[in-house]
Automatic annotation (TrEMBL):
Membrane-spanning segments: 286-309
Organism this protein belongs to: Exiguobacterium undae
UniProt domain HAMP: residue ranges: 309-361
Keywords assigned: Cell membrane, Kinase, Membrane, Phosphoprotein, Transferase, Transmembrane, Transmembrane helix
Official protein name in the record: Two-component sensor histidine kinase
One function term, GO molecular function aspect: kinase activity
Pfam family, one: HAMP
Amino acid sequence: MKSIRTRLIRLVVLAILIPTTLATSASYLYVRHQNVAQAERSSLNTLKRGSNQISHYMEDVRRLPTSLYANRSLINIMNVGADAELSESEGVISRALLGLFLSKQDIEQLHFVILKGNSEYSVYNMKTSSRGKFDWLQETDYFRLMKQRNGWLIDPAHRIAAYNTHTMILDEQEIVSFRYRIDRVETDEPLGFLSVDIPTSVFERQLQLFESFPGESLWLMSGDQLIAKTGNTLPVTSERFTGDSGSMRVGDSFVVYAKTKTQGVPITLVKTTPYATVIKGANETALILMLIGGVSLILMIIAASLVALEITKPIKQLTANVWRVEQGDLSARFVATTNDEIGLLNRQFQRMIQRIDRLIKREYRLALENRTNELRALQSQLNPHFLFNALQSIGTTTLQGDRKIAYRSITGLSQMMRYSMNNEQTIVTLKQEVDHLQSYMRLQQQRFPDRFRYIVDVPWHMNPIEVPKMILQPFAENYFKHAFNQQTDATENYLAYKVRSDGDQLIIQVENSGPLMEPNVLETIDQTMRMHRRPEDQQTSGIGLHNIYERLLIFYGDQASMVLQSPPEGGFRIVIRIPVEQEEL
């Protein structure tokens, strides 16, 4: 049994815990959603600025070859080939490439190819190499440039390498190469190619400018190829970048991307932020709410414990006194220590116990004696009627001269009289009651041979069940008095007893032959059976059914029922229900 204190504390805990949990969860989800949305907006704005800045830088790099178109001497050499005027062309080409190299400090290396004669030159470390022979077109990005409409492309991050044997690389590093196709202006016919190598560190420094929080990383990509990065490994593949911009959570990272194009070259800028950083505000809010809820819960548990103690202390005292009364100690003192409902209940219990004590002392013994006398009086009313019928049956047998049958009848009658006149025994087993019924029916069979049939259906396992004495045989006696027809044979006259159990209920059904009763006649019999009679009443009509009904009420009270019925095919039926475990007298 759970105490009031435990239930009250549990109720307070649930009353605080459930709303606090719901509020914390709702607040956490809302704040987290807002944090994620804010992080996406902030990152997209950052990527937009970064894309603009990197696009401007790449646009500046893309314009580098335009200075070559302004050099008419260089364009003429590219038209006729470097072999035509070797001594003059070497100087023109060297000055043009060196000037281009010095025009932007971020350039690490240049490579220049003239298709006419397949000549190539490179500039590295402020030095222009001598003329070389270019015969590996199909192995480079230049081959793709031959067919591209926009005339330039980006070769993503790779390690720097010498373009020919005349150049010696001093410091190997990661670079991004911008490849250009130089065309004849009038016909767009390719004249040569130019490669500009920019260190990836230039782009990495630009990316670092857009890192807002510790742990953030940025990636600059051209298509699905990497140009520069500030982190280790991108946690997602480029196939998931389906739109122009978007965000997603991948593992412990929050990924935001934005796409753009620079003169037809696709550029993708990706930013990753630790997801814990994104939802830091939501976690802090949830922690604050949990701390507030925890403190409130502790305070309310303490308050509920104090209140429960004040409530349950007098209740425990009241329970202890009630237990003493239950054990039969009516001297228990119900002291009211408070002026509330509990105190009022204590005072009411005190008055009730005092009144019960007076009633028991004054009326208990008298009521018990009256109940015993009433049981004995009801049983004794059965004996004269039964004795008259039994003696009449034995007298008839004696006149017929059958002394053995007469002897058995007298012996059976003596056993029945001993059973029915034993007023000290009010409760018997079902077997004893059935044996008494069987003795009576054998006497009637001797009196009316082949004039009736009877059935007593009682399962053997129900024999030990205890029932009130003399509740079966009176029904048989009433049958022979009111329903038995001596003018017919056994097929028309029958009496049937059927005993069954239904849970903790014992069901006794008695049914006999006879004419169909009108409802008003059946109702009159029922009212007569249930009518209260004083011992001095002289009315004899219906005394058998009335006596059985009265004894059932005395033994079982409202737990017993006795119903009279007249089946549609005729006859009379009585259904009795009594509890299997009766109360001890």
